[in-house]
Specification:
By secondary structure, this protein is α/β, with parallel strands linked by helices. The chain is built from ten helices and ten strands. The structure holds 5'-O-[(R)-(carboxyoxy)(hydroxy)phosphoryl]adenosine and zinc ion.
C-alpha cells in the first residue's frame, strides 16, 4: 500500500497531498491564489510563480501534518511536470526533487491532465473500470476528448481549436462584469436566467471531435454591446441589466454544455465506450452534470466537487499507477510546459 506525497503547482493553486494506495486521501491541502488573481481577472504568471515559492513549504508540511505522517512514512514523491505555466511548474518539481534526493525516495513526474483523469479513481466505492472509456477533460487551460484504452494509454480524439471551455467561462464572466474565476459565477447567474433567451449558434465542427469556443465568446460580446449600457471593455464599468446578465449567462452556458455533452456522447457511442469520464474544473458545473446524466447512453463518472479543480490528490492518484508499473524518473527531469497526454 504505497503512500505517495504529491505536489501540484501548474497554475495558480499551490497544492500538496498524501494519498495511500492511489485511493485513500490522507490529506489534500490547497493554497489558492484566486483572490490575488481576481484583481487582474486572470492568472498573472509572474505573480503565480512567486506565490508558489512563498507558500510551498508550508503547504507540504501541512499535507504531512494532516495525514499524520512524516517523510519517513512516504514511499514516493510525485509532482506535476506539465502542462502548465513554466515558472509555476518548476517550483513544485524542484521542491519534489529536493525531497526525493534528501530522503532517497523515488521521484515521479506526472502529467497534469492524467491527474485530472485519475481524480475519478479517488471516488469512494467506485466500481472497477472496464476500458475503453471516453474522457472529457474540461478545465481553464484544456478541453480534450480522449479515448482511454487502459491505464496510461490514451488516444486523443480531439480538443479545442481556440479557447478552453473554462477559459470561455472566465472570459464571458468578465464581459458580463462577473467575478473570477468565471465558471462558478456564470453558473450562479445562469440559475435565474433563461437558457433560450439568446440563440447562440452551437459550434459543432461536424466531422471532427474538436471544439471551438471563441466564436461563442464573441457572440456574447456583440450582445453585450447591444445592451443600453454595455461597455464591456472595462469590466468594472459594465452596467448591464441584471436580468440580461442572467439570461446571457444561461444562454452561453447552455450552448457550451450542449456541445460538450453532444460530442462526448457521440464519441462514446462511436467507440463503444463502457463509461464516460468527465474531469477538470468545468466538470463542477451542475448544468453539465445534469445534461450528461440525461443524455449519456452509458454511466458517467464525475469527481466530487472538491476534486474537480486543481489539487495534488489527483496527481498522487495518477502517480500511484505509474509507481506500481515501475516508473522512476531521474532527478534531472525538466518541466514540460506543453506536455500532451496523447
Ligand atoms: O482544472 P482547473 O482548476 O484548472 C486548470 O487546469 O485549468 O479549472 C479551472 C477552470 C476555470 O476556468 C473555472 O472558471 C472553471 O474551471 N470552473 C467552472 C466551474 N468551476 C470552475 N466552469 C464552469 N462551471 C463551474 N461550476
Ligand atoms: Zn487542471
Amino acid at each position: 500500500m504505497p503512500r505517495i506525497l504529491a505536489l501540484e503547482t501548474s497554475c495558480d493553486e499551490t497544492a500538496a497531498a498524501v494519498v495511500a494506495d492511489g485511493r485513500v486521501i490522507l490529506s489534500n491541502v490547497i493554497a489558492s491564489q484566486a483572490a490575488s488573481h481576481a484583481q487582474y481577472g486572470g492568472v498573472f504568471p509572474e505573480v503565480a510563480s512567486r506565490m508558489h515559492i512563498e507558500v510551498i513549504y508550508a503547504v507540504v508540511q501541512a499535507a504531512l501534518n494532516e495525514a499524520h505522517v512524516g517523510l519517513g512514512d512516504i514511499d514516493a514523491i510525485a509532482a506535476t511536470r506539465g502542462p502548465g505555466l513554466p515558472g509555476s511548474l518548476v517550483v513544485g518539481l524542484n521542491v519534489a526533487k529536493g525531497l526525493a534526493l534528501g530522503r532517497g525516495l523515488p521521484l515521479l513526474g506526472i502529467n497534469h491532465l492524467e491527474g485530472h483523469v485519475y481524480s475519478l479513481w479517488l471516488v469512494e466505492g467506485a466500481p472497477e473500470v472496464q476500458f475503453p472509456v471516453v474522457v472529457l477533460i474540461v478545465s481553464g487551460g484544456h478541453t480534450e476528448l480522449i479515448l482511454m484504452h487502459d491505464h496510461g494509454r490514451y488516444e486523443r480524439l480531439g480538443g479545442t481549436l481556440d479557447d478552453a471551455a473554462g477559459e470561455a467561462f472566465d472570459k464571458v464572466a468578465r464581459l458580463l462584469g462577473l467575478g473570477y474565476p468565471g465558471g462558478p459565477e456564470i453558473e450562479r447567474a445562469a440559475r435565474d436566467g433563461h437558457p433560450a433567451a439568446y440563440k447562440f449558434a452551437r459550434p459543432w465542427l461536424d466531422g471532427t471531435w474538436d471544439f471551438s469556443f471563441s466564436g461563442l465568446k464573441t457572440a456574447v460580446l456583440y450582445e453585450v454591446k447591444k445592451q443600453p449600457y454595455g461597455r464591456p471593455l472595462l469590466a468594472s464599468d459594465v452596467q448591464l441589466d441584471p436580468m440580461e446578465v442572467r439570461n446571457l449567462a444561461a444562454s452561453f452556458q447552455a450552448a457550451v454544455v450542449e456541445v460538450l455533452v453532444g460530442k462526448t456522447v457521440a464519441a462514446a457511442k462511436a467507440y463503444n465506450a463502457t463509461e464516460i469520464f468527465v474531469a477538470g474544473g468545468v466538470s463542477a458545473n451542475t448544468a453539465l452534470r445534469e445534461a450528461f446524466a440525461r443524455l449519456a447512453p452509458v454511466p458517467v463518472r464525475v469527481p466530487p466537487l472538491s476534486l474537480c479543480t486543481d489539487n495534488a490528490a489527483m496527481i498522487a492518484a495518477a502517480a500511484n499507477f505509474r509507481y506500481l508499473a515501475g516508473q522512476r524518473d531521474a532527478l534531472d527531469i525538466d518541466a514540460l510546459p506543453n506536455w500532451r497526454l496523447a
